[in-house]
Amino acid sequence: MSLAELQALERERVIGSYARLPVQFVRGHGPRLWDEHGNEYLDFLCGISVTNLGHCHPRVVHAIQEQAARLMHVSNLFYTEPAMRLAERLSEASLGGKVFFCNSGAEASEAAIKLARKARPGGDLVVLHGAFHGRTYGALSATPQESKQAPFAPLVPGFRAVPPTPEAIAAAVDAGTAAVMLEPIQGESGVNVLSTETLRAARAACDEHGAALIFDEVQTGMGRTGTLWAYEQTGVEPDLLTTAKALAGGLPIGALVTGPRLADVLVPGDHGSTFGGGPLVASAALAALEVTEHPDLLARVIALGERLHAGLQRLPHVLSVRGRGLMLACELDLPAPETVRRALLEHRLVLNATGPTTVRFLPPLILQDADIDDALARFAAALAR
Q: What is d(CA 200, CA 206) in angstroms, rounded to the nearest whole number?
């Protein structure tokens, strides 16, 4: 179908919850996408940090094809080997506790909130200004952004939002706090890196009052910042960790990983997910983890991130650059949404605007130096108008 036909079908049959850009992608390979006319694009968004290994990574594709021909779904009333193996791999690669599987980052947030509330019944959750944890009701209640929350009030009670500073967190946490929930790098609000002092303050406050520390690594995880999890670069370990997005290389999956202390809080009947950890997505995730965990790839992410960071700083109209690894954003003295649209339609570079002047870069982790230079040239052309 043509783009015009798809747009007409959307207007007639699809709930209007997305503001799509006028491009139809039909094929992807590595860091590149192609539209229905055969035009090639350089993808520096990765489906919002989902295709971290590039489009259609051969090992992920092979795992999906092999598992799809064998078994795709039986529900969590029964055992499947891929789910158990994935739980083992995730636990060993992170907090050492147990894993709950779901289908998205928002669902992982819901699981974390429920676990923390059961561990301390009636307890509040402290969340941070600028956070984004998802759009389901619990996750939305943990996302203190007026534009997202106001149309859907009343929200779930018991969430307290504070500035992302050590002093504010220390003052907010007390004996009635169930958890502090935060992103080590706030993605949707513009790649705002929380200071190590802030993370340490959250850890100390939770330890003092027996609260759980939850790290939302839905966007920062799976190698995005140069280590498998962003927390590994901070010296601060959470009690609970949420992951999703890139975990299965492009298929929908989410997971909550616990440390040992909270591993057995949830019991049969407390929570569930019909599709969570199904054999197809679990097989894809095992393949994606195997590729992502390679130390050469993670070291390369850091080097590529430094190259992209330095290149962005040299461009006209770029006021500042922030982030870590291949999770970067720049502030412009131009309107970001218009710049992103021009980059896509005129220069075939896929980016994302997270604010009026903020452009976010989430490219694949498998880039070559030449891909970075190509993207910088395309972005410079978009900035030149």
A: 10
- Residue 15 one-letter amino acid: I
Which amino acid, 382?
Answer: A
CATH code for the structural domain at 3-57+295-383: 3.90.1150.10
List the catalytic residue out of 100, 132, 159, 361. 132
| pLDDT band for position 385 (cuts 50, 70, 90) | confident
CB 104 within 8 A of CB 256: no
| Candidate list 43, 216, 239, 371, residue with the active-site label | 216
276-297: per-residue pLDDT in tens? 999 999 999 999 999 999 999 9
Nearest alpha carbon to residue 230 among 215, 212, 214: 215
Of 44, 101, 159, 245, the catalytic one is: 245
Question: Which residues does 180 contact at the CB level (< 8 Å), separation at least 6?
Answer: 125, 126, 127, 169, 173, 202, 205, 206, 211, 212, 213, 214
216 is catalytic: yes
Beta strands in 237-293 (DSSP E): 240-243, 254-258
Pairing of strands 212-216, 192-193: unpaired
Domain boundaries 71-292, CATH class:
alpha beta
215 is catalytic: no
How crowded is residue 261: how many other Cβ atoms within 10 Å of its Cβ? Answer: 14
CA distance 328 to 379: 14
Domain locations along the chain: 3-57+295-383, 71-292
Give pLDDT tens digits for 28-80.
999 999 999 999 999 999 999 999 999 999 999 999 999 999 999 999 999 99
Question: What is the 3-class SS of 39-94, one letter each residue?
Answer: CEEEECCHHHHCCCCCECCHHHHHHHHHHHCCCCCCCCCCCCHHHHHHHHHHHHCC
In this predicted structure, the answer to whether residue 19 has a pLDDT above a threshold of 80 is yes
User: Residue 290: phi, psi to the nearest 5?
Assistant: -60, -40
Q: 114 catalytic, yes or no?
A: no
